[in-house]
Amino acid sequence: MIKKSIVAMLAVAVLSLSTVNAFAAEAGVLGLKPSANQSGQSSTDTTANKEVQSDIQYDTGKYQYPAQQLIAEGRQFDKYNWRLYQRFADGQFTYTDWARDNGFVADELSDNNSSIENNVFISHFNLKDWNNPYLNGPFTWDDTGKKEFSTDNRIVFRKKVSDESIMKDRTLTPRVSIEVAFDPQGCWEEHNEIYTPMYFMNGYWHKHATFNEKWWIDAKEASFITKEGVNWWNENIAHPKDPIQLYYPERPDLKLYISGFNMDRVALHCHYINNVYTDDNPNLIAERAKKLQEFYFSLPEFINTTI
Q1: Is 1 within the bounds of a domain?
Q2: Host domain of residue 202
Q3: How many CA atoms lie within 13 A of 76 on its CB side?
Q4: CA dihedral in degrees (223, 226, 227, 231; nearest 10)?
């Protein structure tokens, strides 16, 4: 592979900054709160809910989080604003409720805790290896000095449809995922692929497609092959960005975290998906999958990463 020049690496850095700024602008349009760490500074504030609307008297004894009260009172608010789903008591993010209210299901995923049962893919978090440094923890490549943080768990937000046969086949619904860490220091920026489903139209199956930001793919590639790429990665990516603890009552003895920076991105793409999947008509499932693929193909900052 041809070694990239310093000029090329600087171009990647400039492009990444412009893309982050564009993303922040889009998030602002949607009513999302930009991460406190988009400037590159790390944060460990995982408790405070900074999105409580000051003009509303919240009943913190009756309701768990702001959105719960807003829904009960019939108030209008931006449901994509996931910070309104942080609990009053501890700031923990009720991610399953956020997914439900936006027409998604939140699936647990781990490569080391998955199986196929009755032709259905089943997965859960891998919680038994929470202290295994090879699966969950920081490491540095000896040959390049590149820093990384391993995590074995993700949340997959899948678009929900009422047709159970479609929901059982994970290849037929759009999805966006986010990394889950046991350590708030592991909540690094990560751009996971956007999955657009396969669909049956005109007598045959059309292949699924995955998409990601081009600058992110370029930056990851450069971080493996050039010293400049490694330095840029370690300076801009290798630190936590807005760690947020998940509300996970199934295991109160464990603390699970996501990056609020990454969750802003998830919310944005869930909004994009809902702009296409506007209702639950099973007869239009193929048409909408086709339209979603066309939408991502039309975005100049995204590239097709399908293998």
Answers
A1: no
A2: 6-304
A3: 1
A4: -30
